[in-house]
């Protein structure tokens, strides 16, 4: 089956030089590129099915897209690795006041057929995941409604909520991120290992609280398989029974020419 891997690096803070990235799947070299200074996140909005709700989310203004064959280019437990070359700073005698900071804004892995017919299948799939998420997961903050009828219907739904897939309430991680859920199709986090330092987890948070980093090192994440689909996870992440939809990918589907560019290439 053919899969589309899409991601976007941006420069969060620029000093002098342009960082470069080498991209691997397992030990196979795929590509090398410089991070584009024009790459950034922008706020975009879209209407949900039947124009019921209007949503907004930060999203990348450009994407790098790659087409892979799952039976040839990767397998379950394959590792995606980005080697970052970024030694741009004014470090002198133990002091540093200026440096270039980089961000991996988003990365997703999706079957190619999701984008056929103007992405109709992908949008329907996201709507279904959103329904499951709303039905089985207790909201973390009060919901807002357009009218009284919507509020009554939603309260009725929540009153009948049965946590079929989750045996106990979801817990927030120490950093406030919902790490107990499986995000789709964007990974929950990526592992960043700066040269000479210990590894740390950088979380993807629907465009909020961007995790920017400086220096050279390696970013890595794993390809896993769940419900017959390959997807991206953290190196030691556990795939939960309920998937959480990701607003950034929803925004990408509704606001860019990603579908046309994939079909044309």
Summarize the helices and strands and which ones pair or pack.
Blueprint: E1 2-13, E2 20-25, E3 28-34, E4 41-47, E5 54-60, E6 64-69, H1 70-73, E7 79-85, E8 101-111, H2 116-136, H3 148-159, E9 182-184, E10 189-194, E11 199-203, E12 213-214, E13 217-226, E14 229-233, E15 243-245, H4 247-255, H5 258-264
Parallel strand pairs: 9-15
Antiparallel strand pairs: 1-6, 1-8, 2-3, 2-7, 4-5, 7-13, 8-12, 10-11, 10-13, 13-14
Radius of gyration over all CA atoms, rounded: 20 Å
Largest sheet: 7 strands, antiparallel
Order of helices and strands: EEEEEEHEEHHEEEEEEEHH
End-to-end gap: 17 Å
**SS strand fraction:** 35-45%
The parts where pLDDT drops under 50 for at least 5 residues are: 162-180
The number of helical segments is 5
- What percent of residues adopt helix (DSSP H or I)? 10-25%
Category from helices, strands and their pairing: alpha+beta
Number of DSSP strand runs: 15
User: What is the total domain count?
Assistant: 1
Shape label:
globular
- What's the pLDDT, averaged over the residues? 76
Note down, in words, how this protein is organized.
It is a single chain. The chain has 265 residues and is an alpha+beta fold. The chain has one domain. Helix content is 20%, strand content 37%. The protein contains five helices and 15 strands. Strands 2, 3, 7, 10, 11, 13 and 14 form a seven-stranded antiparallel β-sheet that branches. A four-stranded antiparallel β-sheet has the order 6-1-8-12. Strands 4-5 form a two-stranded antiparallel ribbon. A hairpin with a 6-residue loop joins strand 4 and strand 5. It is globular and about 65 Å long. The two termini are 17 Å apart. The model is unreliable at 162-180 (pLDDT under 50).
């Amino acid at each position: 089956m053919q899969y589309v891997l899409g991601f976007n690096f941006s420069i969060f803070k620029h000093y002098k030089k342009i960082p470069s990235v080498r991209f691997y799947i397992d030990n196979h070299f795929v590509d090398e590129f410089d991070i584009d200074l024009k790459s950034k996140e922008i706020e975009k909005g879209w209407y949900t099915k039947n124009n019921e709700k209007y949503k907004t989310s930060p999203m990348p203004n450009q994407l790098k897209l790659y087409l892979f064959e799952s039976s040839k280019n990767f397998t379950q437990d394959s590792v995606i690795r980005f080697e970052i070359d970024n030694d741009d700073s004014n470090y002198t005698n133990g002091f540093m006041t200026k440096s270039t900071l980089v961000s991996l804004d988003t990365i997703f892995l999706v079957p190619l057929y999701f984008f056929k017919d103007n992405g109709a299948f992908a949008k329907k799939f996201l709507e279904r995941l959103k329904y499951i998420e709303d039905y089985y997961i207790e909201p973390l903050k009060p919901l807002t409604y357009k009218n009284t009828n919507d509020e009554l219907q939603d309260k009725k739904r929540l009153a009948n909520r049965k946590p079929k897939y989750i045996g106990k309430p979801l817990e927030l991680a120490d950093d406030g991120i919902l790490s107990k859920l499986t995000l789709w199709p964007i990974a929950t986090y990526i592992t960043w290992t700066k040269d000479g330092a210990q590894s740390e987890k950088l979380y993807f948070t629907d465009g909020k609280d961007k995790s920017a980093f400086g220096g050279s090192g390696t970013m890595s994440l794993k390809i896993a398989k769940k419900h017959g689909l390959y997807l991206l996870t953290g190196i030691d992440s556990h795939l939960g029974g309920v998937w959480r939809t990701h607003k950034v990918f929803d925004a990408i589907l509704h606001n860019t020419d990603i579908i046309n560019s994939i079909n044309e290439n």
